[in-house]
Amino acid sequence: MARQAGRNVKWFVVWHKDLEVTRDIAEHSGTAGEINKIYANHETFLEQVRPLAVFVSLKLHAVALATCAFVPSVMLEYRPKCRYYMRSIGQDEATIRTDKFRAEDVWEIVKTFETRRPDFSRRLYADIKLVRDRQREMAEMLMRTMEEAG
Questions:
Q1: Tens of pLDDT, residue by residue, the chain (150 residues)
Q2: How many whole angstroms separate alpha carbon 130 and alpha carbon 105?
Q3: Which end of the chain is more exposed for a tag (fewer CB within 10 A), N or C?
Q4: Is the pTM of this model over 0.85?
């Protein structure tokens, strides 16, 4: 759908065992032009994902990194942990269960994100900052408790 709508599609393979299936899907969909293999370097991943309008994945860690770059992301939920993460950053509506997957549903989310990317990126920043601040507070409290315990 993205290719037919004239969008540039990039593939990001973050686990070596996914390369073959990614190549097959990309070739079948006519989007094999750019397959990026990034297995270990999160900085390279962030650098390449940051300029994207939208990121779609069923790899939890890839979505987590993309959202940390404030790229609006669609999570294809294969396990509850995917929804838990997206819920924690206020992105429940961008989570699609794989057993209920319909390309049209994902495409609608993608188009919405695309048209208002700056707004969604700002929202991601604010929601992720809240989570980060809570984590920092808890870590500081834990450190104080450990220091007091001696």
A1: 888 898 999 999 999 999 999 999 999 999 998 999 999 999 999 999 999 999 999 999 999 999 999 999 999 999 999 999 999 999 999 999 999 999 999 999 999 999 999 999 999 999 999 999 999 999 999 999 999 987
A2: 28
A3: C
A4: yes
Q: What are the respective helix, strand and coil percentages of the chain, to the nearest 5? A: 60, 10, 25
Look at residue 38 and give its three-state secondary structure: coil
CB of 91 closer than 8 Å to CB of 109: no
Helix (H) or strand (E) holding 55: strand 55-57
Extract the tokens encoding 49. Answer: 């994902």
Give the domain ranges of the chain: 11-149
Give whole-number Cα distances, 84 to 14, 64, 65, 81, 88, in Å: 21, 11, 15, 5, 6
